[in-house]
Amino acid sequence: MTVAHLEALILERLIEAQVVLDRSVTRPRPKGPTTFWPDAMPESKPIDTDDPRPPTPSAAAITRMEETWGWLAEIKDLKLRKAVVGKVAAWVHDRSTSSLARELGINRVTLNRRFNSGLHVLIVKFCK
Predict the structure, then answer these.
(1) Residue closest to 88 by CA, chosen among 73, 105, 68
(2) CA–CA separation, 85 vs 123, rounded Å?
(3) Above 80 in pLDDT, residue 45?
């Protein structure tokens, strides 16, 4: 297995872990308009086919997520760990890494350097 292949596998698992984490967090359903009229009969209620929530992840996906987040313990430097987690979350949520870097109070180049260093720590862990 090449280093590039290993890097792709690690990134794939990190992205999957972020997606599973987002799906497993329960969010309240948006509340519809309220009225003072009495409740309608159950059979007359419209069926909500456009449920905005994604399906809950499987047990295997949650297990892989927990294993993947456990890998981050290998990254001892908190700044590197923040960069890895933040950049993966930005990719999943279609946010620019420049805006993430501004929120962290650093330059985009610094964010990329910390991300690459953190990823390097994970690659070295799996090469041993």
Answers:
(1) 68
(2) 15
(3) no
What the block records as the tokens of 76 is 């001892």
Amino acid identity, position 62: I
Q: How many CB atoms lie within 10 A of CB 16?
A: 17
For the whole model, what pTM was predicted? 0.74
Q: What is the dihedral of CA 34, 38, 39, 45, to 10 degrees?
A: -80
Contact 126, 71 (CB under 8 A): no
Angle between helices 3-24 and 59-71 (to 10 degrees): 120
Name the amino acid, one letter, at 39.
D
Residues in the chain: 128
> Which residue is associated with the tokens 């949650």?
62
Give dist(CA 27, CA 21) in Å, integer.
12
For residues 62 and 20, is the Cβ–Cβ distance under 8 A? yes
**pLDDT tens, position by position, 67-117:** 998 999 999 999 999 999 999 999 998 999 899 999 989 999 999 999 999
Asked if 64 and 16 count as a contact pair (C-beta separation under 8 A), the reply is yes
CA 114 to chain centre: 18
